[in-house]
Design goal:
Layout (H helix, E strand, L loop, with lengths): L13 H7 L17 H15 L2 E8 L2 E7 L9 E2 L4 H14 L23 H5 L2 H5 L16 H7 L14 H15 L3 H13 L5 E2 L13 E3 L1 H12 L3 E2 L2 E2 L3 H8 L22 E2 L5 E5 L3 E6 L4 E7 L4 H12 L12 H12 L13 H6 L3 E4 L6 E9 L5 E8 L2 E7 L5 E5 L6 E11 L2 E8 L5 E9 L2 E8 L11 E5 L1
Antiparallel strand pairs: 1-2, 1-11, 3-5, 4-5, 6-7, 8-9, 9-10, 10-11, 12-13, 12-21, 13-14, 14-15, 16-17, 17-18, 18-19, 19-20, 20-21
Helix pairs in contact: 2-11, 2-12, 3-7
């Protein structure tokens, strides 16, 4: 699906929007026509900006119609976004389709598919581990098997299984990888290729990408990238019990089993991670279920409200986003169409049209900027392989700043907009990928640049503090699986 929607927006409804929607996109409608309060959606968006400040996109679907959608600039409707563990729900779907085609059963013992990777003397518990145990994260392992070396399946099967499979919940990505590998064993296709004609193409999901392991297996538990509307379509497919455009793409029995509570995983009534787990889907409060991924990628399905909510973000506290959905959006779903509220609708349209990630605040130049402009600062050898940095004015009126960096022998350039985002590509902390950057002089001697890796949950903040001939460089990330701050680097003017 390639929509023609500008970054930072999209909020459209009514007949005009229906004509603008892509051929394979979901139909559009106004919130009130589908029984949703514009004020409730506006309250959600405003609270997200005020209290979370890390959402990248949101789509609200009611009765099969998109009633509100928005992207926080520099994120946009056209770009794919890394799903992380939301990928697991797609892998589950592949398993369900393979079961429906008679290629495997959830009751199959996993060793059946991996005779060459099995230990010479597998334990009793390993022998009894079944596909269903992988699906519900109850493999019987006490710790997650590592995904290292050239054969991840062999590493998985070498991990001790101290608990009887099916009796001990342990959420881990390696279990989903084994599901992906199993589908590939029985179909001869990666999960990505297997799902293309069966799921992605019928839903109009174009150009999905999925990382692979050293064995050439789709990563399964993470690594899938699609667009926000693609997430919403996937949720709508499940809401419709696997039916799409009059065709049963996924068996209804699989949808029901996958989204039901297959295993208990806690008892905290206030936690959406303690409501039970299905087949690679989480149960939620309020009768809902979801697929989700690290740092706030959500596909939330609310059967009682006939609604789907798709969200991408880069948050530290994933529960906070769900709390916001329950507190602000959920009360806005009504049982019948609502009277048109022009004022609330216009306010919502304005809010969604003007969504933007916050940029560093300060002037584009100052006395320090004039002193250091064009000066090259050289760094000693460091883990980031940053060799030098040069700051220069950029743009028509020199309002932007260009940061020229040499990293591992390669010349890189970040153009930072003043109060706005400038597109580019950069390899910093991660492999080269699309970025958007903004910056400002946030102090008399400090320039701060924020770089969003726009197809991921991540952004990096570079703080450059100048002190005579010395440049102190700090780099931090908004979220991460490990430390989010890098050791400070010291550069000297050449």
């Amino acid at each position: 699906m390639k929509t023609t929607i500008l970054a930072g927006l999209v909020a459209c409804w009514g007949a005009a929007c229906l004509g603008a929607a892509p051929a394979k996109g979901l139909p559009r409608s106004s919130p009130e026509e589908q029984g949703v309060s514009s004020s409730a959606i506006l309250a959600f968006v405003e609270a997200a900006d005020r209290d979370i400040d890390a959402l990248h996109s949101v789509i609200v679907v009611r009765h099969g119609h998109v009633v509100a959608e928005g992207w926080w600039t520099p994120y946009d409707a056209e770009s794919r976004h890394e799903l992380y563990s939301l990928s697991k729900s797609f892998t589950s779907t592949a398993v369900g389709l393979a079961v429906a085609e008679g290629k495997l059963s959830v009751d199959d013992e996993i060793l059946k598919f991996f005779p060459d990777e099995a230990p010479s003397e597998p334990s009793k518990n390993l022998k009894s581990m079944r596909v269903s145990d992988l699906l519900r994260m109850s493999t019987g392992q006490q710790t997650e098997p590592g995904r290292t070396g050239s054969n991840w399946a062999k590493s998985f099967l070498a991990q001790p299984v101290p608990f009887k499979p099916g009796t001990h919940f342990l959420y881990h990505t390696s279990a989903t990888y084994m599901l992906s590998a199993t589908v590939q064993k029985v179909t001869g296709l990666t999960v990505l290729d297997y799902l293309k004609p069966r799921l992605f193409e019928p839903l109009g999901i174009e150009d999905p990408t999925w990382g692979i392991s050293p064995e050439g297996v789709s990563l399964g538990g993470y690594g899938l990238s699609v667009r926000t509307e693609d997430i919403a379509k996937f949720g709508q497919l499940y809401l419709q019990k696997g039916k799409w455009d009059g065709k049963q793409l996924v068996p209804e029995s699989w949808v029901e089993a996958a989204t039901a509570r297959q295993t208990s995983n806690g008892s905290n009534p206030k936690s959406d991670w303690d409501q039970g787990y299905g087949y690679q889907f989480w149960r939620c409060r309020h009768g809902a279920y979801r697929g989700d991924g690290a740092f706030g990628q959500y596909c939330i399905v609310l059967p009682e409200q006939d609604a789907v909510i798709a969200i991408t973000s880069g948050v530290k506290d994933m529960q906070a986003v769900l709390d916001l959905v329950w507190d602000k959006l959920l009360p806005g779903f009504k049982t019948s169409p609502l009277a048109t509220d022009d004022e609330a609708r216009d306010k919502l349209r304005h809010a969604l049209t003007n969504l933007k990630m916050k940029t560093p605040e300060g002037p584009a130049s100052n006395a320090t900027a004039e002193k250091v402009s064009g000066k090259k600062y050289v760094f000693d050898s460091n883990p980031r392989k940053i060799e030098s940095i040069v700051l220069t004015p950029a743009g028509k009126d020199n309002d932007d700043v260009a940061i020229a960096m040499k990293i591992d022998g390669e010349d890189r350039r970040i153009r930072c907009g003043k109060g706005s985002w400038r597109r580019g590509r950069l390899a910093l902390l991660r492999p080269e990928q699309p970025t958007a950057a903004a910056g400002a002089w946030t102090g008399d001697d400090t320039y701060t640049a924020k770089v969003c890796f726009v197809e991921t949950p991540f952004n990096a903040t570079l703080t450059l503090k100048f002190d005579g001939d010395t440049l102190l460089l700090d780099i931090g990330s908004n979220v991460g699986f490990g430390p989010t701050r890098q050791p400070q680097l010291k550069g000297k003017a050449e």
